[in-house]
Design brief:
Elements: E1 4-10, E2 13-19, E3 22-25, H1 28-33, E4 61-68, E5 71-76, E6 81-85, E7 115-117, H2 124-137, E8 139-143, H3 151-159, E9 162-163, E10 171-173, E11 189-192, E12 204-212, E13 219-223, H4 224-234, H5 236-244, E14 246-252, E15 257-263, E16 265-267, E17 273-276, E18 283-284, H6 290-307, E19 313-316, E20 323-327, E21 331-335, E22 345-352, H7 355-368
Parallel strand pairs: 7-8
Antiparallel strand pairs: 1-2, 2-3, 4-5, 5-6, 8-20, 9-22, 10-22, 11-21, 12-20, 12-22, 13-19, 13-21, 14-15, 14-18, 16-17
Length: 369
């Protein structure tokens, strides 16, 4: 978050803010909506007791009086006058809303910075550190997780409510014939996001290893933020095409047919990449004019090449009692092939929504003072 400093002027009355190396005047309408007194904002819920949509668009500031470094009384042309705590206005200048800024990573990431002992997360300080690392890097590895059935749900609930899908509250990943998803076979799985065919796509996935007696089946992870930055540098037009072109994703089995259309690269309204929807097993090439289709395919192929490039991808054995916790859209996961005749490989998985760790980090931060 940038340093924020307010400057109050009285003739004419106005509030200036210095943030991110820039100075700007705060609009009177914005300030009026952000009033803070208990007659306008409920002190318990922090929800408004008035409807700001009815405020006149041409409202002006008529008076500004400073009490101390952090408090000012503002009066407006609609007759409202109230005291403001200036520090409470700084949240609007934090583009990450109180959470750590994402830190793109490549294969040389220090894995100790994202590895935590599950028993230690019973302490709020350790839990906050784990949530913070997840928000920075998009994944963490937890060790010493009990291998009892459904222990994965205990981990999930520490960060947010488990999300039930057609696969259940949690699902079992081991090799079995004629399964309804290739994840339940011994074949290799390239980097992908889970469930891009769903509204909404699950935000976070947990994969917990109960037993792994095979030499293969290495887990793979890759940060789409780093890969997308590389693609944008190499092929700006192709990158933009993947950001703007909807792709059809489809999953079908005996009980479900789930379909969604969304671009492969996800961006915020201000153009910041947040992740991808990527699953070569489930997507369909969009029907575009020939030249656009070629450009789309070149960019899609290059994106796939970068996802498996050793510069970006890490691979490691997920051992018994270890759990991967990762942002399903930002960090792509995969698996190398394994031989089920070597021994058992049993993983449990589940999903939670993306906002769970964000809410947890903020509340733990507030509690820590």
């Amino acid at each position: 978050m940038p340093q924020v400093h307010f400057q109050i002027e009285t003739a004419p009355p106005r509030v200036l803010v210095h943030a991110g190396g820039e100075m700007r005047e705060l609009p009177a309408l914005w300030l009026r909506e952000h009033c803070q007194d208990a007659t306008h904002v409920d002190p318990d819920t922090q929800q408004r007791l008035f409807d700001p949509h009815w405020l006149p668009e041409d409202i002006v500031l008529t008076d500004a009086r400073t009490y101390d470094e952090d408090h000012v009384n503002l009066t407006f042309s609609d007759g409202y006058s109230g005291r403001y705590r200036l520090s409470a206005l700084t949240t609007d200048f934090d583009s990450h809303d109180g959470c750590p800024e994402p830190a793109p990573w490549q294969a040389d990431i220090d894995r100790q910075s994202v590895t935590f002992e599950w028993p230690s997360l019973s302490e709020s300080q350790a839990l906050r550190a784990a949530a913070g690392a997840f928000l920075r890097y998009g994944f963490i590895i937890l060790r010493a997780v009990p291998t009892a059935p459904q222990a994965i749900l205990d981990v999930a609930r520490a960060f947010g409510p488990p999300r039930e899908t057609n696969f259940g509250r949690y699902f079992e990943v081991y090799s079995r014939p004629r399964s309804n998803d290739l994840a339940y076979r011994s074949v290799p799985l390239g980097p992908h996001t889970d469930n891009p065919y769903r509204e909404a796509v699950p935000g976070i996935q947990l994969l917990h290893c109960l037993i792994n007696e095979t030499a293969g089946g290495l887990s793979t992870l890759v940060d789409s933020l780093s890969v997308c930055a590389q693609l944008a540098a190499e092929d700006p037009l192709g990158f933009a095409t993947l950001c703007d072109t909807p792709v059809r994703f489809r999953f079908v089995d005996d009980s479900n047919e789930l379909i969604s259309r969304r671009p492969m690269i996800c961006r915020t309204a201000d153009g910041q990449v947040t992740g991808v929807h990527y699953s070569p097993r489930l997507d369909e090439l969009p029907l575009l004019p020939v030249d656009e289709l070629k450009r789309f395919q070149r960019a899609r192929r290059r994106l796939g090449e970068l996802f498996v490039d050793p510069r970006f991808q890490i691979r490691f054995p997920l051992r018994s009692g270890e759990l991967m916790f990762f942002d399903n859209n930002r960090v792509l996961h995969g698996r190398t092939a394994f031989d089920p005749n070597e021994g058992r490989r049993h993983i449990q998985g589940c999903y939670i929504d993306a906002d769970g760790p964000r809410s947890l980090f903020r509340t733990l931060n507030t509690a820590a003072g």
